[in-house]
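Contributing new records

If you add data, match the layout below exactly. Sequence lines come first and carry their own label; structure lines follow with theirs. Keep one chain per record. Anything else will be rejected by the validation script.
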Amino acid sequence: MKWYHYIACFFAGFFLANTVPHFVHGISGDQFPTPFSNPMGKGPSSSTVNVIWALANLLVGYILLRAGKLSNQRVWTLVVFFIGIAFTGIMLSVGFQDKLTH
């Protein structure tokens, strides 16, 4: 395995974890911040924008998953993939914890 396979696995986890909140809010018809909101990442984006953003994250995550050659035969790729998911989950939980107060 080359070093960039591990980077791809990390970012696959990153993008795939970021898919979840945007897709859930989008299909629920709720507004939720995206990079396209004003102010960026803080203001509300429509549910349609959230679904589109989730699908973009899903596509990028899938491409990176394939590029990273994630496999249960390569345990370290799974570990790095999980770290990417955990990092994103924690980062999003901190970043969005006060989204309803603004």
